[in-house]
Design a protein that fits this description.
Shape: globular
Structural class: mainly alpha
Order of helices and strands: HHHHHHHHHHHHH
Length: 298
């Protein structure tokens, strides 16, 4: 039960992410860098006192997974934050929540899991929703469609992050896992910022406030809670909880940014949420049937 409560709080926390990004004019890679850099800074005292010894237990394979996970997270943030420059909060956040469908593809091709007809139908509904949103944004402007494409690629990146991170999270504590992965991601982002010669310091006071808020609310109270819950639930269930993010983000964008929600966005969002919701419900039912069947045998 605690894991499910953590998922709900985490989803509500990450709903603020797109809003904070919209409030600052800093480059996307700089925003992403400081979001994770400050998160690592805030976690350092606790990590140094209680968890630093755990790093010695990591082998080469663990470090390879950590580097891959951190790199995927870094480029997820760059692409997603950049998408918010071109398309609306509603379109960007809803498309990013297609994570279960990317996870669906991942487990089908890489883990050879059998996929039922109802799961295929659920996936097609979600894909139809993304097509409706993209077509509607294309009619609004070509830039909005470009933003949608960036959001979809960002979605694929973060799904890979969850799938790769699931291996590490089940072996190490929350603080150790998140500290290392966030640290690697911030190093990748710092290198990206330096490579493209963006400034690290020439930003307004309000920008620094939003950098810190991004580190505290959607990162430490959002992603970290998801990672904590991932010790007891799988990556697919985490992706399901993220369905709450677009609802919160769209409401906040309407209130704080005066963003309108177009009919195509509403229809597409409906298809995506219903499709992913049906997919995850089917997964849950399948899991319960397996437990019941196992108990009957024993």
């Amino acid at each position: 039960m605690k894991a499910y409560i953590a998922l709900i709080i985490g989803a509500l926390s990450i709903s603020t992410s797109a809003i904070f990004v919209k409030f600052t004019d800093a480059p996307s890679s700089v925003i992403a860098f400081y979001r994770l850099f400050f998160a690592v800074v805030f976690m350092t005292p606790l990590f140094a006192v209680r968890h630093v010894k755990e790093m010695k237990l990591m082998n080469k394979k663990d470090w390879a997974f950590a580097v891959l996970s951190g790199a995927l997270l870094a480029f997820h943030f760059i692409l997603w934050f950049e998408s918010l420059r071109y398309t609306s909060v509603a379109s960007s956040v809803v498309l990013v929540t297609l994570q279960p469908i990317f996870a669906f593809v991942g487990v089908f091709f890489f883990f050879k899991e059998k996929i039922t007809m109802s799961e295929w139908v659920s996936a097609l509904l979600a894909i139809l929703g993304s097509v409706v949103i993209s077509w509607g944004d294309f009619r609004v402007s070509g830039e909005a469609l470009y933003g949608d494409m960036l959001a979809l690629i960002a979605c694929a990146m973060v799904t890979g992050y969850w799938l790769v991170g699931q291996h590490l999270r089940k072996q190490f504590s929350l603080i150790t896992y998140t500290y290392i992965v966030y640290g690697i991601a911030s190093i990748v982002l710092g290198g990206y910022v330096a490579l493209f010669r963006y400034s690290f310091f020439s930003y307004d006071r309000e920008d620094w406030l939003y950098f810190i808020l991004l580190a505290v609310i959607p990162t430490l109270f959002g992603h970290s809670l998801f990672n904590w819950a991932m010790k007891w639930v799988n990556a697919a269930m985490v992706s399901m909880a993220i369905l709450l993010e677009p609802i919160g983000a769209i409401i906040l964008a309407y209130i704080w940014l005066d963003e309108k929600v177009y009919l195509s966005q509403a229809i597409g969002s409906f298809f995506i949420i219903v499709g992913i919701g049906a997919y995850m419900f089917g997964k849950h039912v399948k899991r319960i049937k397996k437990i019941v069947a196992f108990k009957k045998r024993t």
